[in-house]
Amino acid sequence: MENVHLAMEEDDLYSGYNDYNPTFDSEELENDVGFQQAVRTSHGRRPPMTAKFPGTAIGARPLATSFGSRIPMVSSMGRPVTGAVQDGAARPMTAVRAAGYTSSLTRGSTFDPLGQSRGPAPALEAKNEDTPEEKIKILEKKVNDLIEESCMAQSRGALQLALEKAKEAGKKERALVRQREQSGNADNINLDLTYSVLLNLANQYVNNEMYPEALNTYQVIVKNKMFSNAGRLKVNMANIYVKQKNYPKAIKFYRMALDQISNAHKEMRIKIMQNIGVVFVRMGQYSDAITSFEHIMSESPNIKTGFNLILCYYAIGDRERMKKAFQKLISVPLGIDDEDKYIPSNDDTNSNMVIEAIKNDKLHQMERDLCVDMVKSSQYVELANDLEINKAITYLRQKDFNQAVETLKTFEKKDSRVKSAAATNLSFLYYLEKDFDQADRYADLAMNADRYNPAALNNKGNTVFAKQDYEKAAEFYKEALRNDSSCTEALYNLGLTYKRLNRLEEALDCFLKLHAILRNSAQVMYQLLLEDPQQAIEWLMQVISVTPTDPQTLAKLGELHDSEGDKSQAFQHYYESFRYFPSNIDVIEWLGAYYIETQFCEKAIQYFERATLIQPTQVKWQLMVASCYRRSGNYQKALETYKDIHRKFPENVECLRFLVRLCTDMGLKEVQEYTTKLKKVEKMKEIREQRVKSGRDGSARSRREGSAGSAGDSNSTKGERLSAKMRSLPGSNEPYEASSPKEIDASYVDPLGPQMERPKTGAKKRGEEDDFADEELGDDLLPE
């Protein structure tokens, strides 16, 4: 109880709450000599303090505590105050050692954490090429280069040079082996390099028909047990024996290679067995050849082996087995559809020539007619009509329209279902040929045969649409949709019809329904373009995601961005459109005008030169080329261009005006000549205009008076001729390029309008892009 004191008897209960640590005294920092010295100096050059005890200017002030004691405090954590020292030693600074500081820094030392004061790094030591390792590396590189040069020479057809390079590579490789042995690195011989050298040498011997040398080289590789999978080269050796007509030896090596190739390499084993069979055929051992070919046809049948097997059976006179072999042969997949095998490819010229040669040969005629004839004579006679329809469709895919029409016309006297199918396709063909009367006739025939045929109703609507009777066309499309709600062609055409009738809400409803069915149809998305440019841009971006290389869509995007004032986006889309289709004159004109507007006249020249090639009779493109040269400061080239234009268009006023201006500015003597020509052309032009005007006045006066006299008719006709002639001549206003770039007509005329708004037919040719995407020809005409 001695240590227990009552608050009322001794100390104040709240004493000590106003005491604080001097470390946190910010009011007295101005009087703290150590702190002020640290502020004025860097951390590394801080001078040591002379005080014996750490503290601040107010450090000697006693601090009251709750127990009434007065204890001077150094800091709250017991560390020295900033700027102070203890016993003459610098305070440790390990907390910032990673930044380049150290505890041993003294006055006068510099702060250099990157070590820049030590000067530049010493120069790299030169590579010593005299060491054995470097010599070996250099020699290896030379060998590899020689092998590559040998292969490149072979690819160019320089077989002798390829052989010489291969031999030189062999010499270098042997020198490399000796170099390794002398340096004590015989265990590190590059076996892959040795194998490459020997294999390339053997191949070059074969290419030069030096077969004994090639066999010896292959033998070196095969006998070396260090080369893995070298046994496969026995196939190459067997091929050489075949060329030498040493067939027994070839068979032996083929079989040795076959034994060394595992079953995992099935394709290679099949090829070797096929070679064995061919060699047996050349030896006249047909039974052995048959064994090889039969094994191949059971494991991996192919056309060549099947044909060789039939020949072997023919050679031994076994007709029954020939029939079975033929059945196996025709069951081998060709890798192409039967419908496409006679359709020429645009890429392979040789294949196209072969297809043209066999398209109408006797075998093809038998193939084309045999199936139909056999079905007609069987109990499945009803299928013969469908086969005939399919034959007509095949003619369409081969673009043999006359044969297709003749085949389809044979169905006019058939039963109703077949007649409707044939008439639908005939209506489709005549519609594509713009023979709308015949198209309408066969559409009626198809409808009379089968009123519920949606394709026939769709084609009938198309013929009425072509006659601009849109209300009636809409009724036929609606009837087609009532018969078959999945007839997307009729739904698309109904939307087009509503657009022509200016019933835009109903048209939009049709295209939105169609878009829900055909999400990736570019044609449908194009029809969804609205008057709002931003929404139109969004739809066109979806079109681009489906057809990213469509130049017309890209040009339309450029037009919309241009109308919105976004020149950079417009330029990007116009440029992409030009890249995919560099003959669109509107795109070319816009790009040229863009470069003129952005003061890059040199770049605009190439576009106007292309426009000149596309429209050589339009003088304005050539004037624009000359103007670009003039704007870019190339006056000599501009003068030459204007002279060339004057030779082609001697009566062009704008060209003569600029010739006069340029010759005057350049001080040329030709200025007088061009001035005289300009005055003459302007006078002739004025006379023509007066004649045209008088002719028009006379014609109007005669019409008002009701005169039908010959003089009036003559004046009118003459005036109209002069008017037409004057319309073909350039105007007398300022030259085309004299206007500001913004005045250049770079507007885009929608090229998709008449094509995209063409109604869809009930059938479609293969490759037609203006009907309907992904639509199969006559799907509704074939049996279920």
Automatic annotation (TrEMBL):
Major localization listed first in the record, in broad terms: other
GO cellular component: centriole; centrosome; ciliary basal body; ciliary base; ciliary tip; cytosol; intraciliary transport particle B; motile cilium
Compositional bias (Basic and acidic residues): 686-706, 757-768
Repeat (TPR) residue spans along the chain: 270-303, 454-487, 488-521, 551-584, 585-618
UniProt KW keywords: Cell projection, Cilium, Cilium biogenesis/degradation, Cytoplasm, Cytoskeleton, Flagellum, Repeat, TPR repeat
Domain of life: Eukaryota
Presence of keyword Repeat: yes
Acidic residues bias (residue ranges): 769-784
Pfam family, one: TPR_12
Stretch list, region Disordered: 107-131, 686-784
Biological role: Positively regulates primary cilium biogenesis. Also involved in autophagy since it is required for trafficking of ATG16L and the expansion of the autophagic compartment.
Name of the protein described by the UniProt record: Intraflagellar transport protein 88 homolog
